Amino acid sequence: QVQFVESGGGLVQPGGSLTLSCAATGTIRGVAAVAWYRQPPTKQRELVALLPFEASEGTMYYADSVKGRFTSSRNNAANTVFLQMNGLEPDDTAVYYCKAILVEYSHLPPSALNIIDWPSWGQGTQVTVSS
C-alpha cells in the first residue's frame, strides 16, 4: 500500500515562502488524488488542498484560507507532490500532512474529505510562521 512521507517544513517569517514535499513510498496503484491537511496547535485537522494524481482526472481544490497563496503540483516521474506556500501568515502555523486519496474515495467532495478521520497518518512536517 502506498504511503506518502512529508518533508520541507521549518520556521519562516510572516510573508515568507516554503515548499513542502510529499514523496510516495511503495507501489502507487489506485491513488486518485493527494490531499494536503494541516493541524494547527489546539485545533482540528483541516483539508487545505487536493491534487488529482493524474492531470486528466478530477479538479484541484484549495481551502478558502489558502486560496491564491498555496499551490500544489506533482512530479509523477518522481512520485512526489509539492505544496508551494507563499505569503505565509502566523495562522498557517501547523503540522502539515499529505494523504493518498484512493479511487474508492474519489467521489467524496472536499467537505467530506475534510472531516474523515483516516485511520493512519504520516509523521507530518511542522511549519511555523513567526517573526
Q: Main attributes?
A:
single chain; mainly beta; six-stranded mixed beta sheet; 10 strands; 3% helix; 46% strand
- What gap, in angstroms, lies between the N and C termini? 40 Å
Query: How confident overall, as mean pLDDT?
Result: 91
β-strand percent reads over 45%
Q: What radius of gyration results from the CA coordinates?
A: 14 Å
Q: Give the oligomeric state.
A: single chain
Q: Main sheet, how many strands, which sense, barrel?
A: 6 strands, mixed
- Order of neighbouring strands in the sheet with most strands: 2-10-9-4-5-6
Gross morphology? globular
The number of helical segments is 1
Coarse structural class: mainly beta
Which regions are unreliable across 5 or more consecutive residues at pLDDT < 50?
none
The number of E-state strands comes to: 10
Report the order of strands and helices.
EEEEEEEEEHE
Q: Helix content range of the residues, please?
A: under 10%
